[in-house]
DNA sequence: GTATTATGTCAATGATGCTGACATATTATA
DNA sequence: TATAATATGTCAGCATCATTGACATAATAC
């Protein structure tokens, strides 16, 4: 039986170890997003709004197409959420100067405030986890997370490695 | 400006480092679940079905209430998914012997097959990430993930630490 | 001047979650 | 024994978030 599992999994990682990894991801991600979800619910927003606000805050002036790339959703899905955020004055769209077809996205003051409320909660949580785990652990966390994601996603982290 | 950020974040972790951590979680989780989602879509199932199948497979004979605890959803939400899985012969409910109110959940052969298809994909992905990162990194990953989740979730990992 | 690009919108559909209300066994307790 | 609590299930309604497909407009590229 143990032999069988070793054949199935030739890296000598036990089925149990890998299942634990799967579950670590599940519980950590769920808990990590739960508080934000609660904050957003008060504004009648959902996690999708959070993601848009986060990445627009992270990349001021981002093009709609680039945001779609990052989020990995369709423009129709983004449309409803983005229109809402623009309508309710969390995000402004500025026509691109070099290419006037573009609608470059920026947070408003109101948007920045919400972004900060959401992000700082997650940063606090992560900072505590980092502090408890230590610098070596954080580097290990980074390596495993990068390895677990698709090649295409890793490019988002390459520039920050310089 | 840098001073200000240090006050906000007294652990001497830069805003940038913590944002990167947030994004590592976002991209890794998204990519980690994407393949499974695609497999499930063929069966007209979603991620919720995956989670139920996974945890029933992990804890054969689990009570409905315990499953609800793990998933962190309401019984009404579980009901739709679970009924479907029972109706389509992926899961069987066996009346508890000591307490006949309980409906103890088990995978059928069909359920085990789907569970294996879904889980082994994620295990393969994680095994590759673990191998590339190395044992020290894996331990760091574990520490950070445990620290990022709620206290209540950590108990799911305590028994496996013995 | 035509093709492509960037963006937006309408409509229909499905998955996943929620609250609230109510129902049925079964077990525990006063 | 009568009543309360527990374990589970179900119905109805609602919101969010995603999809596909079709079509539209403005601006840029060839």
Protein model, in words:
The structure is a homodimer of 162-residue chains. In chain A, 71% of the residues lie in helices and 6% in strands. Chain A has a single domain (2-149), classed as Arc Repressor Mutant, subunit A. Chain A contains 8 helices and 2 strands; from the N terminus they run αααααββααα. The model of chain A is unreliable at 1-7 (pLDDT under 50). In chain A, β1 and β2 form a beta hairpin. A two-stranded antiparallel ribbon of chain A has the order 1-2. With 162 residues, the first copy, chain A, is mainly alpha-helical. Chains A and B meet through α2, α3, α6, α7 and α8 of A and α2, α3, α6, α7 and α8 of B. Chain B binds a DNA duplex (30 and 30 nucleotides) through α3 and α5.
Low-confidence stretches of chain A: 1-7
Helix and strand pattern of chain A: HHHHHEEHHH
What's the arrangement of strands in the largest beta sheet of chain A? Answer: 1-2
Major sheet of chain A: 2 strands, antiparallel
Q: How much helix, percentage-wise, in residues of chain A?
A: over 70%
Radius of gyration of chain A, whole Å:
19 Å
What is the average per-residue confidence, as pLDDT of chain A, rounded to a whole number?
91
In CATH terms, what is the fold-level topology of chain A?
Answer: Arc Repressor Mutant, subunit A
Under CATH at level 1, the class of chain A stands as Mainly Alpha
Distance between the terminal alpha carbons of chain A, to the nearest Å?
46 Å
* DSSP, total strands of chain A: 2
Number of helices of chain A: 8
Strand percentage of chain A? 5-15%
Quaternary state of this entry equals homodimer
Please state the structural category of chain A.
mainly alpha
Q: Which chains have the largest interface? A: A-B, 60 and 60 residues
Number of domains of chain A: 1
Relevant CATH superfamily of chain A: Winged helix-like DNA-binding domain superfamily/Winged helix DNA-binding domain
Shape of chain A: globular
């Amino acid at each position: 039986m143990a032999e069988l599992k070793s054949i199935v999994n030739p890296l000598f990682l036990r089925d149990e170890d890998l299942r634990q990894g799967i579950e670590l991801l599940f519980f950590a991600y769920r808990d990590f997003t739960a508080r934000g979800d609660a904050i957003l619910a008060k504004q009648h927003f959902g996690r999708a709004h959070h993601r848009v606000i986060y990445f627009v805050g992270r990349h001021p002036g981002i093009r709609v197409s680039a945001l779609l790339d990052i989020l990995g959703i369709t423009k129709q899905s983004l449309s409803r959420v983005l229109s809402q955020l623009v309508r309710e004055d969390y995000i402004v769209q500025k026509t691109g100067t070099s290419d006037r077809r573009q609608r470059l996205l920026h947070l408003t003051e109101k948007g920045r405030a919400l972004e900060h409320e959401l992000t700082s909660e997650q940063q606090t949580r992560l900072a505590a986890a980092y502090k408890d785990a230590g610098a070596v652990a954080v580097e290990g966390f980074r390596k495993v997370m990068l390895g677990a994601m698709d090649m295409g996603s890793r490019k988002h982290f390459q520039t920050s490695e310089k």
